Amino acid sequence: MSLPAHTAAIEQIYEQHHSWLHGWLKGKLHNACDAADVAHDTFLRVLAARNAAHIREPRDYLATVARGLVIDRYRRRAIETAYLQTLALRPEATVISEEDKALIIETLLAVDKALAGLGPRTRQIFIHSQVDGMTYQHIALQLKVSLTTVKKHMIRALTECALIMAQQ
C-alpha cells in the first residue's frame, strides 16, 4: 500500500474512532491519562503496521490492539512492582540509581518476553534453574525427565533470552 493511501486511511480511522477508543479504554482502565496513553500507542501500532486500508472492522481491530497493549502495561507494572518491592528489602548501603533501576526493569521485561515465548516445560525448567537455584540433576528428578532433556530445554531458554537481549 502506498504511504499516502495508508496515511489517509489512518486519518479516517483516527477521526472516526479515536473518541470511541479513548472512552472504551477509560472504562476499562478507570483513568483518563492511561486511556489516552494506550489510545495513542494503539494508533502508533496501526500506523506502523501499514495495513490501515485493509481494516474492515476498525473498532474490533483497535480494541484487539488496545487489549494487547493493556495486557503489556499490566505485565510491565507487575514486574516493576515486584522488582521495586524486592529492592525495598535491600539494605540502604546497596542503593541503586534511578538509571540502573530503569535498565534492570527493561532487562526483566525482556526476559519476561523471552519466557512468554517458551513452552511450559522449558519455562518451568528455566525458572527452577535460574530463579529457584536448582541443579539440572535436581530438576530432572523433580520433573521426572532425563538430564539430557533438562539441558536441551535450558539451551533453548538461554538462546531465546540471548536473542531477546541482543535486540535491546
Question: Would you kindly provide a brief summary of this structure?
Answer:
This protein is mainly α and 168 residues long. The chain is 80% helix and 0% strand. The protein folds into two domains: 1-95, no CATH class; 97-168, Winged helix-like DNA-binding domain superfamily/Winged helix DNA-binding domain (Arc Repressor Mutant, subunit A).
Topology pattern, helix = H, strand = E: HHHHHHH
Number of helices: 7
Count the domains: 2
Question: What low-confidence regions span 5 or more consecutive residues with pLDDT below 50?
Answer: none
Identify the quaternary structure here.
Answer: single chain
Mind summarizing the main beta sheet?
none
Q: Decide which structural class fits the backbone.
A: mainly alpha
Instruction: Tell me the number of strands.
Output: 0
Overall morphology: extended
C-alpha end-to-end distance:
30 Å
Q: How much of the sequence is in beta strands?
A: under 5%
* Rg calculated over all Cα atoms: 21 Å
Summed over residues and divided by their number, the pLDDT gives a mean of 85
Q: How much helicity do the residues have?
A: over 70%
